[in-house]
Structure formats: structure tokens, C-alpha cells
Specification:
Blueprint lengths: L9 E4 L8 H11 L3 E6 L8 H10 L4 H8 L4 H9 L4 E5 L7 H12 L5 E4 L7 E2 L2 H6 L5 E2 L2 H28 L5 E6 L11 H21 L4 E8 L9 H9 L9 H12 L10 E4 L8
Parallel strand pairs: 1-2, 1-4, 2-3, 4-7, 5-6, 7-8, 8-9
Helix pairs in contact: 1-10, 2-3, 5-7, 7-8
């Protein structure tokens, strides 16, 4: 239900190209609350052929192939759905590993929809990566040994890009004399340690540190900065057996849905969260603390 909590606000959401993903759910939820939404996306070069991706789409059962197929979807469908419902939306594809992307994105959003009030850094780079050579030969999904290239790739997108976006956001916030702002950064409940995804975890941990520092520095400008750390969420990546196994270990008895994360992001972006900043919220049905 649209309660209009964000009517008149403009939100920029990164990492929105999988229609089943968290970014898409956040975008729809913000728009439902009256926000104009500008989304960014980045489609990685596919590893599967068009025929393989089409088979995965038709099967629709989840897993890496299906997830890759969903990640190749253009963002226009999400934008058009919001516009058809009477909302305002626009999009731009951008590689956030490029430091020059931050000012371009905020400038384009200003031209299309207006200055950004709500910044949601949802994008992420993930590669399976390990310190243990034994895992490279024993794991699928292209497991790699940690090296400078994979470390830099994760840091550039997962930590540096949101930090640069926050810095550009603040610069524009001050230039226009704004007094209200919201930044919500999306991390992971595995940021403290993630065997098999070591640089992904470390880069998300850096994002959490950037977020807490920003919250301490920016409160005087009317900006709150908070972090959402999802547990396992079905975005198309998990197969049926994995979904069942995770649900069985989750205190609330099911796998996470993108909408579960989106509702918390909307809350943090609203006036209802006016007294919350520098907080890390685990949103995973208790998964992080399962026995």
C-alpha cells in the first residue's frame, strides 16, 4: 500500500538489473511510497550462450545459470513498470568500477528527476575466491586463489564505488543547502568472514566502516547513514535444494525474499527512521545466529 512516505523525494538505487533481485525490489518499494527513482545497472559479459540462458529462463528453477540469465535483463522493464503505474523513473547503465561514474550518475539523475535525497548503494561484485589451494580444485563456480586482481576488483566496486557516491552525494547536498538526506548501504551478514568469498567479505566489511564514519561526520548536515546486511535471499541464485536447506536452518523458517530487504530499506529512507544512524541491521530471519 502506498502511504506516500517518500512523496516528493528522489532516490538513486545502484545495482538494479536482475528483476528478481534486491535492487529491483528496493526500487519498486521506494516508488510505491511516492519516490521518483533513478536506477543504475551493469551487465557482466555473459559466460553462457544465448541458448543456454534461454533454457535457464524457461526452467526457472534457480541456480547459477538462471541467475546469470536474470542478470542480463535490461533495466527498462523496471522503469517502464513504474511509469505505467504513474511514478517517475529513469535509468543508466554504468560500470561502478570506474571512479568517474559517481558524478555522472548523480548529474544524470538531477537532470532526469531532480537532486538525490536518498542514496541506496545496493550494487556488488562477487567472485568465488579462496586462500586455500585445495579449494580451487574441489569447488565449482570458477573458484580462484586470492590475488591482487580479484582483491582490487572487489574493493573497487564494493567499497570504493559507494564511498565515492557518498562523497559526491554530500558535495551536492551541501551545494544546494539541503537539510534532509538518507544513505542506505547494502552489505552482507557474512562481512565478518566468508570462506570461499574472502575479498567479497572484506570489501563489504570496508563498506560498513565507511558507513559508520560517514554517519558520524554527516549527521550535522541532516543526513543519516545506515547499513542493511541481508542473510540468504532468493534472487534466482539458489537452487531448490539449497533453498530448502537454508530455510530449515533459519529461525523464522523460510528463505529470504527481496521484498524483506526492500521494506527495511524503505523504513530507513523514511522519516520514521529519523533517529537512526550509524546502525547495521541484519535482515535474515535470524540466519546469522542459527545453531
Amino acid at each position: 500500500m502506498n502511504r506516500g512516505r517518500l512523496t516528493g523525494r528522489v532516490a538513486l538505487v545502484t545495482g538494479v538489473n536482475n528483476p528478481m533481485g534486491i535492487g529491483a525490489a528496493i526500487t519498486r518499494a521506494l516508488a510505491a511510497e511516492g519516490a521518483a527513482v533513478f536506477i543504475t545497472s551493469f551487465r557482466h559479459p555473459p559466460t553462457l550462450s544465448p541458448a543456454e540462458m534461454e533454457r535457464a529462463r524457461r526452467a526457472g528453477t534457480g541456480g547459477p545459470a538462471f541467475y546469470e540469465a536474470m542478470g542480463q535483463e535490461p533495466p527498462e522493464a523496471i522503469v517502464n513498470a513504474i511509469r505505467s503505474a504513474g511514478g517517475r523513473a529513469a535509468s543508466l547503465e554504468a560500470d561502478l568500477a570506474d571512479p568517474a561514474s559517481a558524478p555522472i550518475l548523480l548529474e544524470t539523475c538531477e537532470k532526469e528527476l531532480g537532486p538525490v535525497d536518498v542514496l541506496v548503494n545496493n550494487h556488488a561484485h562477487w567472485e568465488p575466491e579462496t586462500f586455500d589451494p585445495a579449494h580451487v580444485t574441489g569447488q565449482g563456480y570458477g573458484m580462484k586463489l586470492a590475488d591482487a586482481a580479484t582483491m582490487d576488483a572487489h574493493y573497487a566496486v564494493n567499497a570504493r564505488a559507494p564511498a565515492l557516491l557518498m562523497a559526491e552525494y554530500v558535495r551536492r547536498h551541501l551545494a544546494r543547502g539541503a537539510a534532509w538526506g538518507r544513505i542506505v548501504n547494502v552489505s552482507t551478514d557474512a562481512a565478518d568472514a566468508h570462506a570461499g568469498a574472502v575479498s567479497y567479505a572484506a570489501s563489504k566489511h570496508a563498506l560498513e566502516s565507511y558507513s559508520r564514519s560517514a554517519a558520524h561526520e554527516l549527521g550535522k548536515y541532516g543526513i543519516t547513514v545506515n547499513v542493511v546486511a541481508p542473510g540468504p535471499v532468493q534472487t534466482g541464485w539458489l537452487g531448490p535444494d539449497e533453498e530448502t536447506a537454508i530455510a530449515g536452518k533459519t529461525p523464522l523458517g523460510r528463505i529470504g525474499r527481496p521484498e524483506d530487504i526492500a521494506d527495511v530499506v524503505v523504513f530507513l529512507a523514511s522519516d520514521e527512521a529519523r533517529w537512526l544512524t550509524a546502525q547495521l541491521l541484519y535482515v535474515g530471519g535470524g540466519w546469522k545466529w542459527h545453531p
